[in-house]
Every structure is written in structure tokens, then in C-alpha cells.
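User: Good morning. I'm curious how farnesyl diphosphate would be positioned relative to this chain. Could you predict the structure with it bound?
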Amino acid sequence: MPQDKTELPPKIPTHVGIIMDGNGRWAIARGLPRMAGHRAGTENLRRVIEACIDFGIRYLTIYAFSTENWGRPQEEVQGLLRIFENVIDRELQQLYDMGVQLRHIGRLDGLKPSFQKKVLQAVEFTKKNDRLILNIAFNYGGRDEIICAIQRMIEDGVRPPEVTDELVNKYLFTAGVPDPDLIIRTSGELRVSNFLLWQGAYSEWYFSSTYWPDFDRQELLKALFEYSHRDRRYGLTPTTP
Ligand code: FPP
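Assistant: Good morning! Here's the predicted structure, ligand included:
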């Protein structure tokens, strides 16, 4: 339950995905370098993780670095890699104490070996926690994930009739994680941007014009209230006449 006795919506999503967009514009609007926006975004992430735990959300998947982000200026790419390393170095114990289980989704290969090792150690260290499963999508792309799944199915000799929804789920980076109920994108952009393409087939979307560093607990609560009034039909007819 929230410590501040916030009134919660009647229906809380099990799994929330977030495209944390708008860090750059947040910084530019303040005359700051883009990296200041990513740092402010990281501070905000900490607050949102706490809020998710308070609100009883079980799975949170955040889009931290896409397979396309490698094309950004080197300084920004290196800065984002450093932020991820710093979060692990400085905040892993605190995340552990909060009951967070850290997982990585995306391609680890392509990242430097010491980075890979750090991520794998963090995943191992927190694997018994279950208060909040935090999937960090880093070097992640939805299409790349599906390609990777197909490649591994072929390697395993899977025969065409054996390819089912369930089997594909098992080959995705998110194996074992329920599909996201709600996906939030901040900053006013109305795009999917290669995030959880398979898993988001029936997710409810919530778009906020707020830049990610300012998307606080109250904004999250607003998204949750809106979600709780959605009638999820999965291609069927309405549940209420
Ligand atoms: C999109 O904003 C944001 C990103 C590409 C990076 C998000 C990363 C963080 C919030 C840091 C937390 C990271 C980890 C690994 C824990 P943008 O830069 O595209 O913003 P813009 O559209 O305004 O330019």
C-alpha cells in the first residue's frame, strides 16, 4: 500500500511498460546538455520504481536503450552506457533491499565483456526477489527480439507445426513474463518505436505529453486511473452491454 495513503484505482495492471521519452527535450528546454536530461530521467526512474512497488505493480519494463540508439552521437551513447553501469554499481544493493529483481532484455553480446559480466551478476544477485520484476530493455529492439527467437528456434530444430504462441513466448527475451497490460509513452510522441512488438499485441497504451524526468508518481497514478476504466476486449465484444 502507498505510504502516503494515496487512493488507488480499482484495477492495477500486473505489468507496465514504459517508453521513457523526452529526456533530451527536457534538458534543452533548460539550456542544459542532453546528458543532464538522461541523468534527471534516471533520478525519476528511481521514484517511479518506488511508486510501482507502492501501487502493487509486479512487473515493470523500461526502454532504456534501443538497438537504434547506437546511431546517436558517441558521447551520448557512451553516457547512456555509463549510466547503466553506475546504476548497477551504486544502486544495486538499494534495489535489492526494495525487493527488486533485475532482468535484462535485449542483446547482451555487442556490449563490452565487463559490462555483460556486470549485468549478469546483477541479475544473479537479485534473482530471488519478487516484489517488483524490473526488466531493463537495453540494446533492445522488438524486431531484433523476434529475429533472435526465430534463429534460436531453427537452431533447436523446431518443426513448423510446433510454432505456437506459447512456444514463441518461450523464445523471447521476456520468457516467463506476462504480457504488458499497460504501456506508457511520455513526451507527447505517439509511436511504438520497436518496443515489445509481440508482447504488446493487446496492451492498453497511455500517452502523456510530460517529459520523462517530470513524469512523477501523480502522473503515473493518472495513467493507472485511466487504465482502470478501459474495457479490454482482446478482439471480443464489450463485456458490459
Ligand atoms: C529517450 O529520450 C530516452 C532514452 C533514449 C534513454 C532513457 C534512459 C534513461 C532514463 C536512463 C535510465 C537508464 C538505465 C539504464 C537504468 P530522448 O533522449 O530520445 O529524448 P528526446 O526525444 O527529447 O530527445
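The mean pLDDT is 95. The radius of gyration is 18 Å.
Let me know if you'd like a different ligand tried.
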